[in-house]
Amino acid sequence: MKNQLLTILLLSLSASSVHGAVAAWGQCGGVTYSGDTTCVSGYACIKVNDYYFQCQPGTATVSASTASTTTTAVTPTTATTTASGTAPTGTGQLIRGVSTPIYHLYLQSLGGVPVMAAEATAERFIISGSIQDTTSGLYLNVDGSATTSYKAISFGATATTTGWGLEGDTIITTNASVFGRQLNFLACETSTSGAYKLYLQTGSDTPSGETCTSQTLHLPCLC
Ligand SMILES: *[C@@H]1O[C@H](CO)[C@@H](O)[C@H](O)[C@H]1NC(C)=O
């Protein structure tokens, strides 16, 4: 956290010497990044992982007298500590929704949480038993310990879910000893408008207090 705040501080301090500003949800930093580090007004450059800093709603302000930094960013209610991974080589695939309200929204990390959100910030994934995010190097995992039929999905540094696969262009689970063949997900509203977090749905339970729709996930059109 301290490093993150320091980074935000440094990015904020360098703002005055940078021309142009990064659009909402755009990349504004990272190990191999060389572009602008200033976000448009109302957005702050937030570290998602070492390789990816993103302009998220909120403000980072620097107080000259105390040299302290405060950051407010809108993150999903389930936001957890961001793990770090090693970004793989390979291009990967986009993963998209095909029905309202996630029609043409794409899988990506929002503050370390896998969400369906705008195409402009879509990330690419290598689907090969595991699903690995080519931006962060993290793996898409399903929480198999959940007793409800819906199972939370998160990013992790190691692949604990290895039964991912494709059926045509549809993302499925295949491991008979865990979830079996499943292709239904719940996409649920987060506190960030236009970003929906995911559960794998293996039955008919629904998370109370959340607004969710039943969804399937797909590769972009193969036609
Ligand atoms: C299926 O899941 C079990 C339990 O997590 C795991 O031990 C096994 O390696 C998985 N099989 C495949 C093919 O991924």
From TrEMBL:
Keywords: Signal. The keyword Cell inner membrane does not apply. Residues 20-56 form the CBM1 domain. InterPro entries: CBD (IPR000254), CBD_sf (IPR035971). The keyword Signal applies. GO terms for cellular component: extracellular region. Residues 1-20 form the signal peptide. One of its GO terms (biological process) is carbohydrate metabolic process. One of its GO terms (molecular function) is cellulose binding. This is CBM1 domain-containing protein. It comes from Morchella conica CCBAS932.
